């Protein structure tokens, strides 16, 4: 017996987008998943699984009518975010090295300025 999907791709995509948007707009609300699950009449655990797939990058559902704009938009924003994180991590490494160099220079200068007793 083949597995039948209980929810449409549109419901999955819209509910995941709604959770992501509400998390951004309401960072203190800890009941977002439950509220969105009720709004879209889906199971909270199913919604959590869809969000986990979104987070690990495997969020991609077949779309029978060929309209994949929403999935493409999610994927492109995820790629842009990944690239931004990589850039910032490289920048942090450079700044940490600069900080170590400046600390060494300050130590050397402080030795030179210290009066000889």
Automatic annotation (TrEMBL):
The chain's coiled-coil residues are 78-105
State one molecular function term (GO): transposase activity
Record-linked InterPro entries:
Homeodomain-like_sf, Transposase_8, WH-like_DNA-bd_sf
Carries keyword Nucleotidyltransferase? Answer: no
Q: Which domain of life is it from?
A: Bacteria
Task: Please name one Pfam family that this protein belongs to.
Answer: HTH_Tnp_1
Sorted alphabetically, the Gene Ontology BP terms of this entry are:
DNA transposition
- Give the keywords, sorted: Coiled coil
> What name appears for this protein in its UniProt entry?
Transposase
Organism whose genome encodes this protein: Protaetiibacter larvae
């Amino acid at each position: 017996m083949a597995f039948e999907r209980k929810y449409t791709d549109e419901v999955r995509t819209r509910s995941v987008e709604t959770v992501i948007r509400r998390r951004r707009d309401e960072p203190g609300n800890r009941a977002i998943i439950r509220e969105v699950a009720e709004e879209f009449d889906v199971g909270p655990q199913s919604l959590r699984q869809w969000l986990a797939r979104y987070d690990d990058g495997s969020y991609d559902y077949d779309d029978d009518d060929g309209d994949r704009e929403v999935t493409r938009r999610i994927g492109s924003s995820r790629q842009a975010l990944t690239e931004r994180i990589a850039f910032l991590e490289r920048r942090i490494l450079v700044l940490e090295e600069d900080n170590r160099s400046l600390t060494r220079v300050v130590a050397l200068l402080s030795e030179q300025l210290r009066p000889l007793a």
